[in-house]
Amino acid sequence: MQIGFFDSGIGGITVLYEALKVLPKEDYIYYADTLNVPYGPKPKDEVKEYIFNAIDFITKQRVKAIVIACNTATSVAIEELRAKYSIPIIGMEPAVKPAVENNKDNKRVLVTATALTLKEEKLQNLIAKLDSGHIVDLLPLPELVQFAERFEFDEHTVLPYLRKQLSEYDLCNYETIVLGCTHFPYYKDMFRKLLPPEVSIIDGSFGTVKNLKRILEEKDLIKEGNGSITFYHSGLKVEDNIILDKYIGLLKRLDTINK
User: Fold this and answer.
1) Buried b / exposed e along 105-141 (16+ C-beta atoms within 10 A)
2) Is 181 in the same domain as 237?
3) What is the pLDDT of residues 118-176, one digit of tens each?
4) Do 184 and 122 have their domain in common?
5) Has residue 41 got a pLDDT over 90?
6) Does 173 share its domain with 217?
7) 172 catalytically annotated
């Protein structure tokens, strides 16, 4: 049986990348809801409908677990998904907890994500619980999702946008930047160019995959497969070699960024 990964677009491939390192012999389905991306600017009820349509499809593909590799989808639907489906469903959230708990220098934490993720009750409750010192600031970066979905990784295009968005902050006052959307790690190298060297950049991908592995082990669901990945676009299997090569290229880009 396979492990299903779901995202509104290509962002969740950054989480799949971590899974391939931790569970390299598992077989995977990756479902990108490309007909409806991006989710961030859309109404919550509309996004929920897209999510449930996608998960209905994925559960019919003989999967043993599903990773909601999308912070926005997790924030608006994870509890209802778990109530509906019997297989393990692993969500993710911006890595606010490690950012706050590991803060040693009493500096600030900047959480970047989509607007919908940042305003959702799930994240607001998490911050209220953890941020007793009121050190967390929130910054929506919706254009990064659009850049990624267009496979735009040119510094001449993306860096000016990031520079403008970060210009309102005195970055020397920050200890950690949280990449709270799965699309954002594609631009980690560009964040690094704009941040002071002592500022850490973290995201929730590794923690999500660690949780996936733990649940699979607890349920004795770790099985060796072929390490295959089958891609779907909004319910249609991707068989175009040009598109498949683009996806493999994303995994290679992440290899380069994370060296």
Assistant:
1) eeebbbbbbbebbbebebbeebbeebbeeebbebbbb
2) no
3) 988 888 999 999 988 899 999 999 999 999 999 999 999 999 999 999 999 999 999 99
4) yes
5) no
6) no
7) no
Burial class (CB in 10 A: 0-12, 13-18, 19+), 60: exposed
Query: Residue 100: which CATH number?
Result: 3.40.50.1860
- What's the domain count of the chain? 2
Residue 105 reports pLDDT greater than 80: no
Say whether both 147 and 180 belong to one domain. Answer: yes
Is 230 marked as a binding-site residue? no
156 is in an annotated binding site: no
Q: List the catalytic residue out of 19, 67, 70, 73.
A: 70
Marked catalytic residue, from 66, 111, 145, 181 = 181
- Has 7 been labeled as part of a binding site? yes
